[in-house]
Sequence to fold (399 residues):
Amino acid sequence: MELLNIKNLDFVGKKVFIRCDFNVPMDEFGNISDDRRIRSALSTINYCLNQDCAVVLGSHLGRPDGEVVSKYSLAPVAKRIQHLLKREVILAKDVVGEDALAKASTLKSGEVLLLENLRYEKGETDNSIELSKKLASMVDFYVNDAFGVSHRAHSSVEGITKFFDNKHKAAGFLLQKEIQFLGKLVEKPVRPFAAIVGGSKVSGKLEALINLLPRVDKVIIGGGMAFTFLKQMGYDVGASLVESDLLEEAEHIMQEAKKLGVKFYLPIDVIAAEKFSEDSISKITTVQEIPKGWMGLDIGPATVKLYEEVLSDVQTVLWNGPMGVYEMDKFAGGSNKIAHYLANSYATTVVGGGDTADLVQRIDLDEQMTFISTGGGASLELLEGKILPGVAPLIIKKI
Ligand code: AMP
Fold:
C-alpha cells in the first residue's frame, strides 16, 4: 500500500496541522507514565519544522466525551513535547474556539501550537464536518500521524481530509512505518502465523477474532476473555470474568476455528484468587477446579508451558492483550513469561495495543520485539484486512 508522502509536499513558509496520537497513560498524580507515543511523533514534527513551516498539533487524550474535563487537558503533554523538541510549545485554551483560532492565525514559521484535547469537542467522535472545516481553516496542509486512531472515522482523522487535495495532505512518518510493516504482515506472513489474544473481554475483540481466523494458523487465548470460552465448554469458572451474552458467539468462534483448521488454544490452568486484589490469597488451579467464588486472574504455569510449546514452531506472532491482570505483580507472571519467550524467539514478533506494549516495556523487553505498534485496535483492524478510515483518503496505490 502506498500512501501520500509528506516529502512530496512543499511546506516552506506555510502552516501544517499534524494529527498526532498523544493519548498517553498517566499515573494518579497526572504524570505521564509512558511517553512512547509522544516520542514516536517527533520525527514528523521535526521534519515539518525543518521545512520552515508553522506546526499546529492536535490529539485526543482519554474520553472526556465532548466536555471540558481538566484531568484530560493536554497541558502535561505540551510540557513533555516542549522538553523533547527543545523549543516552546504554545498550548491553546480550546480546540477551535477563539483562543485556538487567534493563536493559529498569528503562528509563525518554526512555531508550534498544540490545540486542547480534540475530544473536548463533541463533534470529534461524531465526525462533524463543521469541526473538520474549522480545524482545516487554521492551516494549509494536513498530515495524519496518529496510527492509533486511524481506525476511527473521527473529525480530525477522516472528515478533515475532505478539505485538502492530494497536494495538501499526507501520511506522517509514524503512520507510514506502521502501515508498511503491518501491511507486509497481512499480505505475506511467514507461516506458521499465530495470534495471541488476551485482555479483559471477548466483546472488545470479538470481530477481530472472527476476522483473524482465516488469516492465522493458531490462536492462543489468555486474559479475562478466556473464561467466556471455558464457560461455554462447560467448565465452572467460579467468579471469573464471563460475558454470558456472548457464550453463543464464543461457540461460533471455536466452531469456525475447527472448520478452518485453525488450532485454537485455551488455558488449562490459572492463578485463581479469592478477590480482585493484590493482597488476596491465591493459588494455582486447573480450569476444572477453580474454587467456588474465586476468579482466574492469570494463566497458570502449565498453560505457559503449553503455550511455549505451541509457539515453538511459529514464524510470525501477533500479540494483542495481556494474559492476566499484569498491573498487579502477583498476576503478571503469565504475561511476563510469554513476553520473555517471544523476546528470545526467532519469530517475527509484533506487539499491538497500549496494555501489551506497556507490559513488555515494564520488563525492558520492548527492544527485543520485532515491532511494537502504537495502535492496538488499529493494528488488529489492519491485520483483519480492513482499510482504516483515516488511511483510506491518503492511499495512492492499494498494493
Ligand atoms: P483490554 O483493554 O480488553 O485489552 O484488557 C486489558 C485489561 O485486561 C488489563 O487491564 C488487565 O488487567 C485485564 N485482564 C487481563 N486478564 C484478566 C482477568 N483474568 N480478569 C480480569 N481482567 C483481566
User: Anything to note?
Assistant: The chain is about 35% helix and 15% strand. The chain has two domains: 6-176, 189-383. The radius of gyration is 22 Å. The mean pLDDT is 95.
